[in-house]
Specification:
By secondary structure, the protein is α/β, with parallel strands linked by helices. It is built from eleven helices and 14 strands. The structure holds 1,4-dihydronicotinamide adenine dinucleotide. GO terms for molecular function: L-malate dehydrogenase (NAD+) activity.
């Protein structure tokens, strides 16, 4: 029998937490043969609801679930953690400036980064879901100098999945026929979903589409603004699809990308593709044995260059803002 993996979820009592925990416990995060122990980290006001979710987890009698612990202390929540899903964040409220938002989230992600640094397992892998995800990941990473920097990642897999689905709809292909799509940059409205290297049933996707106007005026804004469209339709932000993407992100990181395909992850830049080193930006990556590599050597055309640069510029501004606030 395998040793259980400790998975910590912050914001466990929230919408995404509710859609996420049951799939972790049923084996979708790591594999159908990997036992898990869950740690639910909440703020004091969220503890009671987290206990309710834990009762329901009990009631599922998941064979792989070997324990649930609930806490509002990050030092306890991240103790021995192998995987940390940082979902809880301070949402933007009316009238809030970007600086206020970054500062409020600094108050969450800095202490969590420190607790990860001091208490997590040596093989800790961190996925930041809570927005602004890329910069929150940067803050947590900076507070964890003893953890290898590349273990801090931010979620752009939901954007990736949204792009796959939109492209499949446009071309009449199945999602499973589409490979090598890329989300570049920030998980925000400046993100750039790139189909110039994508393949649909082996053919170049941009050529199959053959319509740059559609790319610029339809596809890119639809993917980038999908979050707002979901709020408009559902009256609440994406939760099940966000949870699904978090599952996909970690599953792919741990279990590897398929031969001939890649995925998109927000990861610390090594300077590839002109993205300043250290920024946590989305790239095309392949994964294997729990590690990832940026796909190298892609030709970046002018259309793509301008859009990647704009999103990376926004990331650099966010980094400068949190640096000025003393958060990194
Ligand atoms: P929610 O408001 O339903 O839940 C958030 C939970 O986090 C609450 O239960 C709250 O008590 C908890 N929380 C707040 N501060 C905490 C702290 N310091 N420690 C532990 N828990 C804390 O929000 P929802 O819908 O679950 O979304 C969570 C985050 O995910 C938001 O920031 C949202 O913007 C983001 N998101 C990111 C996506 C992505 O693609 N990267 C997609 C969708 C949402």
């Amino acid at each position: 029998t395998r040793t259980p993996v400790n998975v910590t979820v912050t914001g466990a009592a929230g919408q995404i937490g509710y859609a996420l925990l049951f799939r972790i416990a049923s084996g979708h995060l790591l594999g159908a043969d990997v036992p898990v122990r869950l740690r639910l980290l909440e703020i004091p006001q969220g503890l009671k609801a987290a206990e309710g979710t834990a009762m329901e987890l009990d009631d599922c009698a998941f064979p792989l679930l070997q324990g649930i612990e609930i806490t509002d202390d990050p030092n306890v929540g991240f103790d021995g953690a192998n995987v940390a899903l940082l979902v809880g964040a301070r949402p933007r409220t009316k009238g809030m400036e970007r600086g206020d938002l970054l500062e409020a989230n600094g108050g969450i992600f800095k202490p969590q980064g420190k607790a990860i640094n001091d208490h997590a397992a040596d093989d800790i892998k961190v996925l930041v879901v809570g927005n602004p995800a890329n910069t929150n990941a940067l803050i947590a990473q900076a507070a964890a100098p003893d953890v290898p920097a590349e273990r801090f990642t931010a979620m752009t897999r939901l954007d990736h999945n949204r792009a796959l689905s939109q492209l499949a709809k446009k071309t009449g292909a199945q999602v499973s026929d589409i490979k090598k799509l890329t989300i570049w940059g920030n998980h925000s409205a400046t993100q750039y979903p790139d189909i110039f290297h994508a393949e649909i049933a082996g053919k170049n996707a941009a050529e199959v589409v053959g319509d740059e106007q559609w790319l610029a005026d339809d596809f890119i804004p639809t993917v980038a603004k999908r979050g707002a469209a979901i709020i408009e339709a559902r009256g609440a932000s994406s939760a099940a699809s966000a949870a699904n993407a978090a599952i996909d992100h970690v599953h792919t990181w741990v279990n590897g990308t398929a031969e001939g395909n890649w995925t998109s992850m927000g990861i610390p830049s090594d300077g590839s593709y002109g993205v300043p080193e250290g920024l946590i930006s989305s790239f095309p990556v392949t994964t294997k044995n729990g590690t990832y590599e940026i796909v190298q050597g892609l030709d970046i055309n002018e259309f793509s260059r301008a859009r990647i640069d704009a999103s990376v510029q926004e990331l650099a501004e966010e980094r400068d803002a949190v640096r000025a606030l003393g958060l990194i």
